[in-house]
Design goal:
There is one protein chain. The protein is built from 19 helices and 2 strands. It has 476 residues and is mainly alpha-helical. It folds into 3 domains: 170 residues, no CATH class; 176 residues, no CATH class; 110 residues, no CATH class. Strand 1 and strand 2 form a beta hairpin. The longest helix is centred in the middle third of the chain and has 33 residues.
């Protein structure tokens, strides 16, 4: 079941009403039942895999806590199992393993490689859970079905946010639903629909027109498409997070924020503090800091090793292939350069005017992130090299601004296509200008009904309803 689907929006009010009518101490059972239905709706095999790995993780946690003298062996074997299966699955998905298991997936109306829904998310959370027990931060749970709810909670299941067990599991015991949480939840869901259907899905055909590689384009067109993909990815992924946080709020559950206006980041490190924040915190806690601590006697080399280790693992988590390897190495180089030039940049701050320096930092960061996303979006290295070659071509392919630039992005340059292109650009710029204020008003739900009404009207008027249920990060 997908967030933007008739099945989900029909089931959600029914489950919410049942949830309200259930005694607080039994409400977690309603969430568990709906979460299992949500997972198994289109892909029953995904539910079976979830049940298997959740059960293994639960009992491994108990064994780690009970048998102190063998805790390390149990912990290492459990982590190796989860990590090995995750790498194998990524290899199958990318075709790197030589296995091409294909099924008919009705959720996407196309033939796809076998994908186990949510596997990348809950395996990481399982590893975090086992590590927390091994380090003595938490006690192993004693109720299998409560732990299963932590693994399967529908709001975060497919693409996060990633939650620590000590922050999420306690919320399931006696969830408290307040009126303001319901209003904020509805508002957040509508904002997610707006970002997805009005912004991301309107940008999708513009980006695909260039990334499809069907025709050569000028350098300006290729560069614009790469930048627009970064915007599309942000709107698409943050939309998923908005809907996840909003639906969780309806049931009295607070999930962690995953984005904090990353397009205005002043450095790549600042970008990663604002983009996919929960995954970044998880990798920092369980990869970066342990590596730096282990190699602490090596000074700066320890920090550099921690940076590259973190991004290499992040690249593997996103997918097995050369494009993801290049993407991870680029970000490793970006952050290493930042770390090694700290003193030099401090001098620039004192020389360059503050506002100008901030603009330069934001622009440079955006360009660097966009360049890395060229590889993130490309199907393979040949595709990436083809796009890079377009950067060196003439600005408009020798056809002028209208034919060589706008017409390609607008899908052919017809009057209707040009109008839709202009509307899309205007909507994106308008939203980015008021994004901070929109999120602030969501926290003031009693005064946000006008904004909620405007967002709903915009979704109905400008929204793209075809294939709205597909989110880019579902493939990871």
């Amino acid at each position: 079941m997908q967030f933007i689907s008739s099945a989900f929006f029909c089931a959600l009010p029914v489950v919410f009403l049942l949830y309200l009518l259930t005694k607080p101490k039994y409400r977690w059972m309603v969430l568990l039942a709906f979460s299992l239905l949500f997972i198994g709706w289109n892909r029953p095999y995904s539910l079976l895999v979830l049940l298997l790995f959740s059960t293994i993780t639960f009992y491994c946690g108990l064994l780690i806590q009970q048998f102190k003298n063998r805790a390390t062996l149990i912990y290492v074997c459990a982590i190796a199992l989860q990590a090995g299966c995750l790498i194998l699955l990524k290899s199958v998905e990318s075709g790197q393993s030589g296995l091409r298991l294909v099924v008919k997936d009705e959720g996407y109306k196309t033939d796809m490689l076998v994908v186990v829904a949510g596997f990348s998310v809950y395996t990481l959370q399982h590893m975090a859970y086992l590590t927390a027990i091994y380090r003595g931060r938490i006690q192993a749970g004693t109720q299998l079905f409560r732990f299963l709810l932590f693994s399967s909670f529908f709001a975060k299941f497919n693409s996060g946010p990633f939650e620590e067990p000590e922050t999420l599991i306690p919320q399931f015991r006696l969830p408290v639903i307040r009126r303001e949480m319901i209003l904020q939840g509805v508002h957040r869901i509508v904002l997610g629909l707006f970002k997805k259907m009005v912004l991301a899905d309107r940008l999708a055909p513009i980006v695909s027109a260039v990334f499809s590689g069907e025709s050569d384009t000028g350098s300006c067109t290729a560069i614009s498409a790469v930048c627009l993909f970064t915007l599309q990815l942000y709107f698409d992924f943050s939309a998923y997070s908005d809907i996840a946080l909003g639906t969780a709020k309806l049931f009295g559950i607070e999930l962690s924020e995953n984005f904090n206006r990353p397009l205005l980041a002043t450095s790549v490190s600042d970008f990663w503090r604002k983009w996919h924040m929960t995954l970044n915190r998880l990798f920092s806690t369980y990869v970066y800091y342990p590596v730096v601590y282990l190699l602490r006697r090596n000074g700066k080399a320890a920090v550099l090793a921690g940076i590259f280790s973190t991004f290499l693992i992040s690249g593997v988590w996103h997918g097995i292939g050369k494009t993801f390897l290049v993407w991870s190495l680029l970000h490793g180089c970006y952050l290493s350069a930042e770390y090694l030039t700290q003193k030099t940049r401090q001098k620039w701050i004192r020389i360059v005017p503050a506002k100008l320096y901030r603009v330069l930092c934001i622009s440079t960061t955006f360009i660097l992130v966009c360049f890395s996303n060229l590889f993130f979006r490309s199907e393979d290295m040949d595709h990436a090299r083809h796009l890079l070659s377009q950067f060196a071509s003439s600005p408009f392919s020798g056809k002028g601004v209208m034919l060589g630039y706008v017409s390609v992005l607008a899908g052919g340059g017809y009057e209707e296509a040009l109008f839709n292109f202009a509307v899309t650009v205007a909507l994106v710029l308008l939203f980015l200008s008021f994004e901070k204020g929109i999120h602030r008003r969501i926290q003031q739900s009693d005064n946000g009904f006008v904004q909620l009404f405007i967002l709903l009207i915009a979704v109905v008027t400008f929204g793209v309803f075809e294939n709205a249920g597909y989110f880019i990060y579902l493939q990871f």
